[in-house]
Each structure stands twice: as C-alpha cells, then as structure tokens.
User: Fold this.
Amino acid sequence: MTKLAVLIPVFNAERYLLQTLQSLSDQDDSDFRAIIIDNGSEDRSYQIAEDFAKRDKRFILIKEENRGIDRALNRGLAELKEEKFVTFLDSDDIYLRERNKKLIEFMEAGRLDIAACNAFFIDEQGYRIGRNIDYTGFGKQNLAEVFFAANVVPTLSQIMLRREFILQLGKFLDAFRWTLDYFLFVSALIMGKNTSLFNEFLVEKRYHQKNFGTDPLNVTPARLRLAHQLYEKLLKNCKSPESAAKIYNARYIRDVQTLRRTGKETAITGFLQELCKEKIISRYYYDYFNLVVLSRLNILQAEEYCQTISFNHPLQFFAAGFFYYRKGDLNKAAKYFEMSREKSGEFFPEALHALAVSVAAEAPDYSLSLINRCLNEMPNFYDALRSKQLIADKRFSDLKLNGYITEKTLDYFLNYYEKI
Assistant:
C-alpha cells in the first residue's frame, strides 16, 4: 500500500513546473503517488506534466476546467485510495530531498493529524532570498494563539496531514481559496486535532510576480464573515482571553482595511454594523471606518453620521477631520486632526500628516515642520514624503488624503493605547 499521496494543483506554471515535479521525483522516500491536477492551463503546463507522468509512473495527470485551486484540490481528493498521509506541492515550489521522509517521521512520532515543516524563500531564478519565521518554541505555547496573530505557514507545500483528517474535514471551502494553508490549520485546531509545527526547513517557497500577495478579487465581505466564524471558535481555545481578544480585534480591523484597499467600500458599512453589534470590534474602530468610508461615498450621509458620534478615541477625531477635509472645511479638519494627535498620547503620524496637508496653503512653513515631525516618527511614510515635496514646490492643489492608517499605527492603538 502506498504511504503518501501528493496533490499538485497546476495553472499556467510552465516556467517552474518541471523543476517542481523533479524535486518530488528525487525524494529519498520514493513511496508516494502524485496526483497532478491541471486547472485549465493556457500555456504548456499540461504537456510538461503529461510528459513527466509518462516517464515516472508514480505520477498521474487529471485535466480540469479553471474553477479555482479549491476545486482542483477537491478533484484530487476524489482520487485518494488507501494512502496513510496526504500532502501538497504548489506548482512553483521545491521539495528538498528529505522533505517527505522527515515529515512522515515527525507525523508518526507525534501521532499527529496535521503538521508543517518550515520553508526557505526563493526568487524567480531559484536564489534563496530569506526564510520563514522560526518555529522554535511554538510547540510550547497554544497554537491557537499563534494562528490568531498570523498565518505562519505561507504555503501548502509545507503541510502534511493524515488521510482520515482530510476526509473528515471534507471539501476545501471556496471562501479560503487564497489561504488554504491557513484554513487547514485553523480547522484542525477547531476540531481538536493533534497539530504541530516542525522547525526543519524542507521546502523552498518561490516568490514571483504572479503569486506575490493576496488577490484582491478574492476578498469579499461574505468570505471575511466565513473566515471570522473560524476566529470565533478559535478564540475559545486560547489560554489567555485578554491576549486573544486583542488579537481578535486586530484581525477584524486588518481585514476591513484590506477590504477598503480593494475598492469594495460600498460593501463595508453593513459588514461593520454586524461586527459592532456583536461587539466583535469596538465602537471606536467602527466609527472610524464607517465615517471615512461614508466621507468618500456620500458626504451628506457622512455629515449625519458624524453628528451621532460620541467623541473619545483618537481615531474618531481623525475620521471627523477626514470628513471635514472631504467637505472642504479645512479649518475644522485641522482642528479635529490636531485633537486626534493630542488624544493619541503623542504618537499618530497620520494625524500629523493630515494636519500638515490641511494647513499647507495658509501656513506652508508650519506644514513642513509638521511633515518633518511625522517623518521622524515614521521615516518611510510614503504619503508624507510625497506631501513634503509637493508643499516645498507649493503645489497645494495636488495634496491628497486617503484616510488610511498604517499597520504600525494600528498596532500602537491595539497594543499600547487600548486597555482591552
């Protein structure tokens, strides 16, 4: 009986596919069956896979329409036989020779349902450009808290699981097609499965132009709601409720920021209302996001909403400043931006930048001094660097504010300013 099934979803990977398949073929542990699922490739990927499968009978090839990686993997799952373990190989990643052997030994020694080895990062030419976060010590803390904070398994190629677990889990969910690695681990934690991270670097994850970052088309309110159903269940497994609540709030806020950046602002307000009503995010963040979005979409509705806010938090004042800026009342905008800065405990570079933009035409020297203070706190703040040049050139009409806050400032409010 074959010990291991390897699922390999492929879409337009002709540049890297041969090297990827060869890295599996050359494994020290040769007892595996590889299932290649061509997901409607439009280049030579199918021909490359077909030729390889003819030379190495451990490989079989299935051709599918392009319906997403989740559907491709579901098709591969249908081909499982009696293999003990199931693993994955992205069509542009590389297995190191001992990957399967060592990961199987780790799974068996710990009687694990799911595990992940660690990964190096390589570029388009195959040169190593970095490595994933070190897993040392993660086994000593609650993995639920680790996965709350971030996805520390950036590629499916790191993961191995028992066949029984994947069959119990069922089909891959379309809502998680952009982060199936995270979906598998979070699902295992929710289901009480035996999970672990293996700090051996046995995979090379390739970064290139086509796979760098999350596809914004995949981020929708419906998918975020489904993702946060997992967060709600995962919260119960955290040893430190106070720490978990802080991370939980951060996950929601970051996801809403992502949604805004994808241009789906019209979909945000209803989603935010649900989150605030269920006390998943605090009123402060709800007011901030909602007022900024309304200020960009409907200035009359924004004005009505602004009058309902009980101002207390720096982000509420900042959002009000953004509203007045969009309305064209720069004096009031400056007043609220200044209050947001004062309320923040003297860290809020975006507020300094916004105040500088608001007063630039009337007081360019003062505006430049504010920009310089902002850059002292956040030297690589692109918006401030751009505004500094525009103010110096007296191109005041080209100055713009977008209402975003950076990750650094968000972390400040969540971890230092807030008393959760």
In short: Residues 241-261 form the longest helix (21 residues). The chain has three domains: 4-208, 217-281, 298-420.
